[in-house]
Amino acid sequence: MKPLFWFVFLAGLGYFLAGFLRRRGDYAIRCRPVLRIRLAETVAVLFYFGVLLVAGWDFPFSPFPAATSWAGLVLTLAGVLLCSWAKVHLKSNLTVTLGIKRDHTLITTGPYARIRHPIYTAFLLQFLGAALVFDSGATLLLLFLPFVAFFYWQSAAEEKLLVEHFGGQYRRYRVTTGRLAPKLLSGGSHG
Fold first, then answer.
1. d(CA 126, CA 123)
2. Which residue among 60, 77, 173, 186 is least enclosed by CB atoms within 10 Å?
3. Tens digit of pLDDT for each residue in 129-175?
4. Residue 5 CB: number of other CB atoms within 10 A?
5. How far apart are CA 160 and CA 166, in angstroms?
6. How far from the centroid of its chain's Cα atoms is residue 174's Cα?
7. Where are the alpha helices (DSSP H) in the chain?
């Protein structure tokens, strides 16, 4: 199960990162807190690997590790597929840093019809999948949960730029979509 997880995860990550090698852009607006966000993410990942690999601290959390492992693999695959689907719809709008390109268009098709930040959601599914595949409480506490906060922080910063650039068009889009998960009820908050 674990080798299959690594194959799915690394194949998806490779496909995602390959897009950045070809993408350069002329940015109209850049996100100011991006360095703080990336630093916090990097510190969290290094802390996670330090705790897991160096200190050897981890704990299982599932009473049914075999079933949990399969569920984790399904979540990981769903995350890879969602990320790939979102990347296909973003096309040239995919950015290395948080920013709005001069020729940026508002994408509202594919996964963006329901979720404003499906790539962040996809990575969260993959982190949660990893926690389940490895039955790792450390992955859940030190990787998945911090990245929920980081992606919320990052999406909030990104949405300020999108409102600045697209104005009312983006505000209307926010009403009908969820930030990191599909909106279950119409109307409601902008979360």
1. 5
2. 186
3. 999 999 999 999 999 999 999 999 999 999 999 999 999 999 999 99
4. 20
5. 10
6. 18
7. 2-22, 34-49, 65-90, 118-133, 137-139, 145-166, 168-176
Residue 59 and residue 135 in contact, taking contact as beta carbons nearer than 8 Å: no
Average confidence (pLDDT) over 85-110: 85
- The radius of gyration of the chain from alpha carbons, rounded to an integer in Å, stands at 17
pLDDT surpassing 70 at residue 62: yes
CATH code for the structural domain at 33-176: 1.20.120.1630
Long-range contacts of 91-94 (CB under 8 A, 24+ apart): 92/23, 92/25, 94/19, 94/20, 94/23
CA 129, CA 140: separation in Å to the nearest integer? 9
Task: Tell me the pTM.
Answer: 0.85
Dist. CA 84–CA 125, nearest whole Å:
13
- Write the CB contacts of 25 (distance below 8 Å, at least 6 apart in sequence): 92, 95, 99, 101, 102
**Two tokens at 18?**
């390959």
Between 17 and 86, whose confidence is greater?
Answer: 86
